[in-house]
Amino acid sequence: MKTQHYLLLLAIFVLTTSFTIACKKSNDNKPLVNTYWQLTHIEGETVTKSPAIPCIQFLSDGTFNGNLGCNSFFGNYFAKRKKISFDYLGATKKYCQDMKIEDHFGKVIRNGITHYKIEKDTLILLNKKTEVLRFIAATQKEEQ
Q1: pLDDT for res 27
Q2: What pTM does this model have?
């Protein structure tokens, strides 16, 4: 009789553990670090290709880099417990026909971002509780 109880408990444990693992896999968020984040929205407005797709990537050494839409940019960041701060160091200085998205993205990334959240494949950068930038996880090949 004891053997049957142990087998029943073991079966319940295996079934609940398997279910929990399956649920976790389906709800996984992309990591902030080493994910290529493609910009989709600035302050609620949809972003289009301009001439390149604006993007950012956070590296494990505390640096970030990306493309503002024409020029590359780089700097340092600090992220802990969904708080994030940027030390924007600079960007290349090419001139492009349409600099509107570039200028807007550059201004926003340098000013006031305090928090972030990740929802599956979406990164949202916030100024306190207001969404400022929205990105989607992508492969670098999609940039071209």
Answers
A1: 56
A2: 0.77
